[in-house]
Design brief:
The protein is α/β, with parallel strands linked by helices. It binds adenosine-5'-triphosphate and zinc ion. Belongs to the helicase family. PriA subfamily.
């Protein structure tokens, strides 16, 4: 399969080491035909088995481990100038190595689709699209930064042209975005470029509009909704320096910049910065590395920084900049816990919450109800025999939806009609359990017939433009009730909202995952942060059946940072991240026994490596069934590795992955390695 073929007659001038899209964790060597100019960072066509593929030259070497006579030549050179700058190529290689992902596949998954094929592309000859009119910024009332913002802006600007990482830790509505805008302005004046990464969901026209109104410079937008052509154009505009500002989701981190100046990660705590399948990299962690490689500053901004970033700030790796007050005249909202054990509730809404809703609407405010379950109810059950609506393919229940009526599995998307009688006992007493967004929406519509009730979740926003339409309606400022999932929690500036109600805070409190409480706290503070962002003060009501829970108490009375300190102490005691490092090796298959058998083999390989390399400080747990063992008809198991040293884990993993890759058993399961996993689910 590798580059071994009968001798070629070409006279050659050196050997190119090429990353080829394959599942193998290695590079392949090819002869460079005579009189051909090649360099690292360009694309070439190479023979691979019986096929021809597009690869990227990673290095030019004098010698190969394979006999020169056995090497095959490059068939075609696709780029004449460097396509991927060496800094970025190094970052890519480092990341593939660190996250233990096949290098060619990692490179390819990050190239715009338009460059994975044979088509030629030239950065040097790329000019801006003439159909795009020159934009004149319309933002005339740029706020004067307050003293904390000024300090932040000065710190970042003073470090331009050199590496520095900043944790911009500013409460919700403190004007972090204004700090980004001013720092970008400074960078643009030096003829440099800035890239800003945002969570998937915040890349709305509103965000983009705010930037367009401020700057006349060309902005490239990179997100998953682009056509391959648009994506390639945006990429080339960034690489050629035509686009001065690049805004995008996770993978935009790998966009080349002709004159890099600044990297910003907005909402750095957000889970979407870690890719959860395939090449499982953390764009946040790699952003810091990229900034170091390119000698530029990086800002990680959040109102609820991840425990990792707080730890890095505490230990001096990041400069900690705090914005403790809301910008302008806005003040922080007040919190109140509502004990749901003491109050009768209609569709999960306590009487306290209903009364508060009525009060705020009467005062002309908008109300936001947060509920982390879409659909009508999480389960359908039979009141006679106890039957529940189980998914036929997962260890999960089918959610009841009313609009349109169906049962649906939120893990595998299996759909079924809603039965009119119990499939087990034929009884007619079917009932629903729990509350989802649809039910909450209709209960609120009944309770407040004169007020518009808007629902914001994945189902309601499936149609293109729907999210924008709903946000626009909210921004007209008229009293309304907004019911939504975490979609509403992220980054939206909703100045009319004065009351936020959280329907159920209990889920996160008892999560089995080690980051469960951290995620719960971030979510609550972010949702709460939508309240009272303009002149009217905000109020937050959190419903729970555990109001005495220590974490909730700490969060509500002493704030996010106090809870973060407690959680960090717990992590330290348990040697969990950021005090220890984790790797999960996952395996799944249609047969129940295969994943366990495979991971038992993996464990043997690991043990023998630990022994032969005399590694200590490694704990191995498992194989264990994943928390949801069966999903989409596949059984899943995992193996957990833990160490206080990243480098020890790396010296173990590299040979282990090489060995496993070569074993025939690896082809009978789907297996993957997750370095620095976000969760153990
Ligand atoms: N110095 C200032 N004076 C007056 N208003 C300001 C100032 N800075 C920012 N603002 C305004 O305050 C509002 C909130 O600012 P911004 O959206 O930047 O906050 P944020 O910290 O990014 O919020 P979040 O964490 O919720 O995303 C915006 O309308 C912004 O224009
Ligand atoms: Zn399912």
């Amino acid at each position: 399969m590798p580059a071994r073929t009968p001798q070629q007659s070409h006279p050659a001038s050196g050997i190119a080491r090429v990353a080829v899209p394959s599942p193998l964790r290695r590079l392949f060597d090819y002869l460079i035909p005579a009189n051909t100019h090649v360099q690292p960072g360009i694309r070439v066509r190479v023979p691979f088995g019986s096929r021809e593929l597009t690869g990227i030259i990673v290095a030019i070497v004098d010698q190969s481990d394979i006999e020169t006579s056995q090497l095959r030549p490059i068939t075609e050179v696709l780029d004449h100038d460097e396509l991927i700058p060496s800094h970025l190529l190094d970052l890519w290689l480092w990341a593939a190595n660190y996250y233990q992902h096949p290098v060619g596949d990692a490179l390819h998954s990050l190239l715009p689709a338009g460059l994975r094929k044979k088509s030629a592309a030239s950065i040097r000859s790329h000019h801006s699209d003439p159909s795009q009119p020159e934009i004149t910024p319309t933002d005339t009332d740029i706020p004067t930064p307050n003293s904390q913002q000024n300090e932040a802006i000065r710190a970042v600007n003073d470090s331009s042209g050199q590496f520095n990482s900043f944790l911009l830790d500013g409460v919700t509505g403190s004007g972090k975005t204004e700090v980004y805008l001013q720092c970008i302005d400074h960078i643009l004046k030096q003829d440099k470029q800035a890239v800003m990464l945002v969570p998937e969901i915040s890349l709305t026209p509103q965000t983009i509009e705010r930037f367009r109104q401020r700057f006349s410079a060309a902005i490239a937008i990179l997100h998953s909704g682009l056509t391959p052509r648009q994506r390639l154009n945006a990429w080339l505009e960034a690489a050629s320096g035509v686009a001065r500002i690049i805004i995008g989701t996770r993978s935009a981190l790998f966009t080349p910049m002709a004159q890099p100046g600044l990297i910003i990660i907005d909402e750095e705590h957000d889970a979407s910065f870690k890719q959860q399948d395939g090449f499982r990299y953390s764009a946040r962690d790699l952003a810091v590395l990229r900034a170091r490689h390119e000698s530029i500053p990086v800002i990680l901004g959040s109102a609820t920084p991840s425990l990792e970033s707080l730890y890095n700030a505490n230990t001096g790796r990041y400069r900690h900049i705090q914005l403790t007050q809301r910008a302008g005249t806005a003040s922080m909202p007040t919190f109140q816990l509502v004990d749901t054990r003491r109050q009768l509730s209609e569709a999960g809404l306590s009487s306290d919450l209903l009364l508060a809703t009525a009060r705020h609407l009467k005062q002309g405010g908008q109300v936001l109800i947060f509920i982390n379950r879409r659909g009508f109810a999480p389960v359908l059950h039979c009141e006679d025999c106890g039957w529940t609506s189980e998914c036929p393919s997962c260890d999960a229940r089918l959610t009841v939806h009313r609009k349109p009526p169906h049962l649906c599995c939120h893990h595998c998307e299996t759909r079924q009609p809603v039965p009119d009688h119990c499939p087990d006992c034929q009884g007619k007493s079917l009932g629903t359990g729990g509350t989802g967004t649809e039910q909450c929406e209709s209960a609120l519509a009944t309770a407040f017939p004169d007020t518009p009730v808007l629902r914001l979740d994945r189902d309601a926003t499936r149609r293109k433009g729907e999210l924008e339409r709903i946000l626009k309606q909210i921004n007209n400022g008229e009293p309304c009730i907004l019911v939504g999932t975490q979609m509403i929690a992220k980054g939206h500036h909703l100045p009319g909202v004065t009351l936020v109600g959280v329907l159920d805070a209990d889920n996160g409190l008892f999560s089995a995952d080690f980051r469960g409480q951290e995620f719960m706290a971030q979510m609550l503070i972010q949702v709460a942060g939508r309240a009272g962002r303009a002149s009217q003060p905000g109020e937050v009501l959190i419903q729970t059946s555990n109001p005495e829970h220590q974490s909730l108490q700490t969060l509500v009375h002493d704030g996010y940072h106090a809870l973060a300190r407690t959680l960090l102490n717990e992590r330290e005691a348990a040697a969990m991240p950021p005090y220890g490092y984790l790797v999960i090796i996952r395996a799944e298959a249609v047969s129940m026994a295969a994943p366990q058998r495979y991971l038992t083999l993996a464990r043997q390989v690991i043990n023998s490596q630990i022994h032969s390399q005399q590694l200590n400080d490694i704990e191995v747990h498992g194989p264990l069934p994943a928390p949801m063992e069966r999903r989409a008809n596949r059984y899943r198991q995992h193996l957990i590795l833990k160490s206080s040293s990243r480098s020890v884990l790396q010296s173990l993993l590299t040979p282990v992955c090489q060995i496993l890759e070569g074993r025939s058993e690896s082809r009978r399961v789907r297996w993957s390695v997750d370095v620095d996993p976000l969760d153990m689910l």
